[in-house]
């Protein structure tokens, strides 16, 4: 039988505050649990409004709870507290490791989604227009602040020059702007500190030998001084051994690698500690299925990028996390399985039975 886990500690990131809170709150409630929601200190307003809506809908007092604050003072206690039965965390790998270690003290259930360095593999026979368009969307949507961003372009060598040249041309035309600018196609980064981190990441990549094809700094356009904007950036001639290929920038930065054959493409794509998501572009259906089957990633899209389906499980292999969100398996994270055996015809077992004299 299934029963609720109990008290769920839900820790959400800043990049999609309403979406991420919904992914955790909804299954926690559906499974019959209570929860304590801890949003990022950078984006608390959405969760405050969500809790007000839940109250207006009649959620009983004490079933849903909200704590605000930084990770060290508000998030860590959730992971450590003995009365919290499950902690579900979405965020960076370093913090995720700390959450897992803290939860280990009470051996509570843990679900972690820790981001990725996601490969976007383009074969020479791919639908070129669709692959180009989606390669841009994969990494520059939301200025790259997406856990599943296709930040590693792995393109077949025979089409590399033409494909990357067109990507550079299009990336240079992306319009940056604020939320009230109707022309804007991409926005600002979350903070100055994060922009500085992205800039340092790009500089390190260039220092390793990557070739800067576009971007690589803040825009100088009038009206963008107030935000923490960073231009869409493409680093070409990359190798898997480079830090800029292995590390998650969480910004609008695309690295480019090439391959000559299917096996090499798979090897390059799997050469990472992460395993959240990836994509394969080819018109060969058999090859698409082979590659998808050999990728060590929790989600593989074929001839598409970034479709999220609520009925399909979401989560990663390797250090991209443990557990799943969405789908039946995601709901299953919030229940415990109990085996109950009832003997409907009880009788003495006779195992230690003796005769009246005490003998056998």
Automatic annotation (TrEMBL):
PROSITE patterns: ALDEHYDE_DEHYDR_CYS, ALDEHYDE_DEHYDR_GLU. It comes from freshwater metagenome. One of its GO terms (molecular function) is oxidoreductase activity, acting on the aldehyde or oxo group of donors, NAD or NADP as acceptor. Coiled coil: none annotated. This is Unannotated protein. Belongs to the aldehyde dehydrogenase family. Keywords: NAD, Oxidoreductase. PANTHER family: BETAINE ALDEHYDE DEHYDROGENASE (PTHR43860), BETAINE ALDEHYDE DEHYDROGENASE-RELATED (PTHR43860:SF2). The keyword NAD applies. Pathway: Amine and polyamine biosynthesis; betaine biosynthesis via choline pathway; betaine from betaine aldehyde: step 1/1.
